[in-house]
Amino acid sequence: MVRRKEEAEIKVNHQMRGGDGDVTIRGLLRKDADEFYGKGRLFAEIDLPAGASIGKHVHEGEMETFYVLAGKGLFDDNGVPTEVGEGDVCYTGDGEAHAIRNVGETELRLMALILYR
After folding, report:
1. What gap in Å lies between CA 40 and CA 115, rounded to an integer?
2. What's the CATH code of the domain at 99?
3. Is 49 inside a domain boundary?
4. Total domain count for the chain?
5. pLDDT at residue 21 in the model
6. What is the SS3 string spanning the chain?
7. Which residue from 39, 46, 84, 103 has the fewest beta carbons nearer than 10 Å?
8. What is the pLDDT of residues 52-104, one digit of tens each?
9. What is the distance between the alpha carbons of residues 64 and 66, in angstroms, rounded to a whole number?
10. What's residue 88's pLDDT?
């Protein structure tokens, strides 16, 4: 199967998880088509314009990983702020909390994966 870029599901979330600005999510796999085989719920490209953020939230029964494709961010890892950039991986395990903010002048682009425990 090949899914063309224009076929991807795109959602724009305003103040995602209590964050600032608009966050664009381009879904790469479809949960409704069981492309996760019941083992996850998100594989997506996430774009945060300058100043935008995803607010702090906890993952229960699942994990989330961000892979930074471009830009500069401030990742909140259970209350510990860490600057991240291209090539960095941010992992949030089951029961842990995280948030991320674009602190650069250009778009912060992430690859995101959520898998169930």
Report:
1. 4
2. 2.60.120.10
3. yes
4. 1
5. 98
6. CCCCHHHCEEEEEECHHHCCCEEEEEECCCHHHCCCCCCEEEEEEEEECCCCEEEEEECCCEEEEEEEEECEEEEEECCEEEEEECCCEEEECCCCEEEEEECCCCCEEEEEEEEEC
7. 39
8. 999 999 999 999 999 999 999 999 999 999 999 999 999 999 999 999 999 99
9. 7
10. 99
